[in-house]
Design goal:
Helix content: 55-70%
Strand content: 5-15%
Protein name: Tetratricopeptide repeat protein
Largest sheet: 7 strands, mixed
Distance between the termini: 72 Å
Shape: globular
Organism: Marinobacter salarius
Radius of gyration: 28 Å
Number of strands: 7
Structural class: alpha/beta
Length: about 675
C-alpha cells in the first residue's frame, strides 16, 4: 500500500509540474506580446515565479531551465542565459528549442556566425522550426549576406508567418539588394512591403526605384512609356505614394508622366477617371520632393491657368465635385496651401473630401496648415515672414513611419549594453537629441523606450513643426521639439539631462550654439553622450556647389535649388557629381537646401571630441563600427587621445564610428 501511495504522489507531482510549465509558457508568451511594457514585465515575473516553483521541485527539468534562460536573456543577463541553455541540454540533448535559444543568445552576443551554426543544428533536429529558420535569416543579414537572408524572409512570408521581425528584416535586406533585371517576384515583394502599413517605407526607396528602372527599361533612351499602362501599375502608384526613389531615371519617369497627364488635360479639358490614381500619386510624390521635379514653361503656364480657374470657381461658389480634377492637377505642380485660393479650401475638413483624395489633400494643404500654426509659437517664425511662400524651408528628411523596434527601457539598455549601474537614476530618464531634423530617431526613442522623456532640438523650424505634428498624430506624448534658443535657455536654467544624442551638427551659421558647452552644462555624473564620428554631406559635388553659391551669392530659393539640381542631373555622368547623385538628400529640395545652404559645422564635432577625450571626466563606454559591431574600447580611446593631442594620422573624424561616453563626475 505504501509503494502504491508513492507512485500516485509522483504522478500527481508530475501533473502539477506540467501545469506550472504550461502556465509559465503562457506567461512568457504574454511577456513578448504587443502589450504595454508594464504588462510585459509583469508577465515575465509571473513566468519566473512559475519556473522557480518547478525548479524547486525538479532542479533538472530541461524545459524549465531553457525557458528560464529565455527570461534571463530578455532581461539582458546573457551569461546566465547561456548557462541555463547548456544545463538544459545536458539534461536532455534532443531539444531543438535549446539550440534555437542558443542561436538567439549568439545574436544578442553579436556573434552571428555562431548563431547560424546553432540554428542549423536546431533545423537538423526539427525541419519545421520557423523560429530556427527565421534565426538563420537574421544571422545571414547580420553577416552582410543580404540576398540569402532576403530569400529566407520571403520563404517565411510564403509560409504565412506575419511576425514584425520578418517584415523588418526583409525591408532591411531589400535596400541592400542590387537589382539588375526586371523580376516579377521582386516586384511582388515590393508591392507586399509597400502595402504593409506598419513599415518605414522611406527605407526601401532605392530597392523600389531599381525595380521600376528595370521594369520600364529606363536605361534605354528609346524606351516608350504608355500613360495608360503606367496608370494601371500598382507598384508604380504605391511607390509614388509611399516612398522617395533616389534615382535620376525614375525622377525623369515621374516628370514625363506628369507632363503627359497635363498635356492630355489641356486637350480634353478633363482629367479622366482612369488617370486619377496616378495623378494623385504624382501629386503626393511631388510634395515629398519639395517640388524638386522640373517643369517646362508650358506646363507652368497651364498649371497657372488652372489655378486661376479654381479661384474663379471658388468665387462663384462651385461645389467640390466641379473642382476635383483641377485641384489634383494643381497639386502635381505646387502645394495647394501656397495658392491664392488656399484660404477658401479651409471651409472643408479633410474628411469632407473623397477618400481617394485625402492623402493628397493632407500632404498639399492640411498638414502644411497644421505645421504653420505650430510655427507661430516660436520667435524663429519671424525669419520666414519675408520669404516667398514657395521659398519657405521644407522639413527634411521626409519620412512616413517609424522603424520597427521592440519596446524596452533605457535603464535596461544602459545596464546591459553599457555596463552601467542604474540604481541612482530617476524613474523617468531625460534624453536630449541635438540635431533631431524632422524627428524620426527622436520619436523612435520616445516611442520604444518607456522610461524616458525626450527633448528634440533642431535649427530648422520646418523640422520642429513637422515633427511636432507627427508626434501628435502618433499619440507620442513624452517628447517635445524645440528650436535651439529654447533648448539653450532650458540648460541655462540649470536643468540636466541623463542622455545626449548628437544627430545632425549645427550649421556654420549657428555661431551662438556650442555643442561642447551644452554637453558640459547639461550633463552630470553618470550621464551618457552618444555620437557619430563622421560628418556627412561632404562629396566633391557638394563642395563645388557651395563654391558656386559663394561666388554668385545665391539664396536658397526654390528656383535656385532647382537650377542647381538641373545642372547636376544634366552632367551626372561627370565623376564630380556621381557621389552626390547617389545621395537620397539630393532628391528633395529640403535635403539640397540643408546640404548646400546649412552645411554642418565640423568644428562643433572637433570641439566635442576634445571635451570627451578628457579621461578624468569622461569614459568611453562603448564603440561600434559602421556595421553596428562592437569594438574594443581601448584602441578607440587611444585614437581619441592621439587626436586630442593633435595627431591627424589617427583621427576618428570621418570613420563613421558610433561612440558612447559616460560622464565620470
Amino acid at each position: 500500500m505504501q509503494a502504491q501511495h508513492n507512485i500516485h504522489a509522483t504522478d500527481a507531482q508530475k501533473a502539477h509540474i506540467a501545469r506550472l510549465l504550461l502556465q509559465a509558457n503562457l506567461a512568457y508568451a504574454e511577456s513578448n506580446s504587443p502589450t504595454s511594457l508594464v504588462q510585459r514585465l509583469k508577465a515575465r515575473q509571473e513566468c519566473r515565479d512559475y519556473l522557480n516553483e518547478v525548479l524547486a521541485q525538479e532542479p533538472g527539468n530541461a524545459g524549465a531551465l531553457g525557458l528560464m534562460g529565455r527570461v534571463e536573456m530578455d532581461e539582458g543577463a546573457l551569461d546566465k542565459a547561456h548557462t541555463l541553455f547548456t544545463d538544459s541540454l545536458s539534461h536532455d540533448p534532443a531539444q531543438p528549442q535549446q539550440f534555437t535559444n542558443l542561436g538567439y543568445w549568439a545574436i544578442k552576443s553579436e556573434r552571428p556566425a555562431l548563431a547560424e551554426q546553432y540554428f542549423i543544428q536546431a533545423l537538423e533536429m526539427d525541419r519545421q522550426s520557423a523560429a530556427a529558420f527565421g534565426g538563420v535569416a537574421h544571422a545571414k543579414r547580420l553577416q552582410g549576406q543580404f540576398d540569402v537572408a532576403y530569400l529566407h524572409y520571403r520563404k517565411l512570408l510564403e509560409m504565412g508567418l506575419e511576425w514584425p521581425s520578418i517584415y523588418s528584416g526583409m525591408l532591411t535586406c531589400a535596400e541592400h539588394l542590387d537589382v539588375k533585371r526586371a523580376d516579377t517576384k521582386l516586384a511582388r515583394d515590393a508591392i507586399l512591403l509597400l502595402r504593409h502599413d506598419g513599415l518605414p517605407h522611406q527605407e526601401i526607396g532605392r530597392f523600389v526605384g531599381a525595380i521600376i528602372r528595370q521594369q520600364y527599361d529606363l536605361e534605354n533612351p528609346n524606351a516608350q512609356v504608355a500613360l495608360d499602362a503606367a496608370s494601371e501599375d500598382e507598384l508604380l502608384i504605391l511607390a509614388l505614394e509611399k516612398t522617395l526613389m533616389p534615382d535620376p531615371a525614375v525622377e525623369e519617369l515621374a516628370t514625363l508622366l506628369r507632363r503627359a497627364i497635363i498635356a492630355e488635360v489641356a486637350q480634353t479639358v478633363e482629367l479622366r477617371d482612369e488617370l486619377q490614381p496616378l495623378a494623385l500619386a504624382l501629386a503626393v510624390y511631388a510634395d515629398r520632393t519639395g517640388y524638386a521635379l522640373t517643369a517646362e514653361d508650358d506646363e507652368e503656364r497651364l498649371a497657372s491657368a488652372i489655378n486661376d480657374s479654381i479661384c474663379a470657381q471658388l468665387a462663384m461658389g462651385e461645389q467640390q465635385d466641379g473642382m476635383i480634377g483641377s485641384l489634383i492637377i494643381s497639386a502635381m505642380y505646387g502645394a495647394l496651401f501656397h495658392q491664392k485660393y488656399a484660404v477658401h479650401l479651409g471651409r472643408w475638413n479633410l474628411v469632407d473630401w473623397p477618400v481617394a483624395m485625402q492623402g493628397m489633400m493632407a500632404a498639399s494643404y492640411y498638414n502644411r496648415a497644421s505645421e504653420e500654426a505650430i510655427k507661430q509659437n516660436f520667435d524663429e517664425k519671424s525669419a520666414e515672414l519675408c520669404l516667398e511662400k514657395t521659398d519657405v524651408p521644407q522639413a527634411w528628411p521626409n519620412w512616413s513611419k517609424l522603424a520597427y523596434r521592440s519596446e524596452t527601457s533605457l535603464k535596461a539598455i544602459m545596464a546591459t549594453e553599457l555596463g552601467m549601474s542604474t540604481e541612482q537614476l530617476p524613474e523617468t530618464i531625460r534624453i536630449m537629441v541635438c540635431g533631431a531634423q524632422s524627428g524620426q530617431r527622436a520619436m523612435e526613442l520616445a516611442h520604444y523606450l518607456k522610461d524616458v522623456e525626450v527633448i528634440a532640438v533642431d535649427e530648422s523650424l520646418a523640422n520642429v513643426a513637422k515633427a511636432t505634428r507627427l508626434a501628435g498624430e502618433m499619440g507620442i506624448s513624452n517628447i517635445v521639439f524645440w528650436p535651439w534658443s529654447i533648448a539653450q535657455q532650458f540648460v541655462a536654467d540649470d536643468h540636466k539631462v541623463h542622455w545626449i544624442e548628437i544627430g545632425r551638427l549645427p550649421s556654420t551659421s549657428m555661431t551662438e550654439v556650442s555643442l561642447a558647452a551644452l554637453v558640459s552644462s547639461a550633463t552630470g555624473n553618470g550621464a551618457v553622450v552618444h555620437m557619430h564620428t563622421a560628418v556627412n554631406e561632404q562629396t566633391d559635388g557638394d563642395k563645388q556647389i557651395r563654391r558656386l553659391i559663394s561666388q554668385h551669392d545665391l539664396k536658397p530659393t526654390r528656383t535656385a535649388l532647382r537650377q542647381l539640381r538641373r545642372m547636376v542631373l544634366t552632367n551626372r555622368q561627370d565623376p564630380m557629381w556621381q557621389s552626390l547623385v547617389a545621395e537620397t538628400d539630393f532628391y528633395g529640395l529640403g535635403g539640397c537646401r540643408d546640404r548646400w545652404f546649412s552645411e554642418q559645422d565640423s568644428r562643433q564635432l572637433k570641439e566635442l571630441m576634445a571635451l570627451l577625450s578628457n579621461e578624468v571626466d569622461w569614459k568611453l563606454a562603448k564603440a561600434r563600427d559602421t556595421d553596428g559591431h562592437s569594438l574594443a574600447t581601448k584602441p578607440v580611446q587611444k585614437q581619441i587621445q592621439a587626436e586630442a593631442l593633435g595627431s591627424e594620422v589617427q583621427s576618428l573624424m570621418g570613420q563613421g564610428l558610433s561612440v558612447y561616453f559616460q560622464r565620470r563626475r
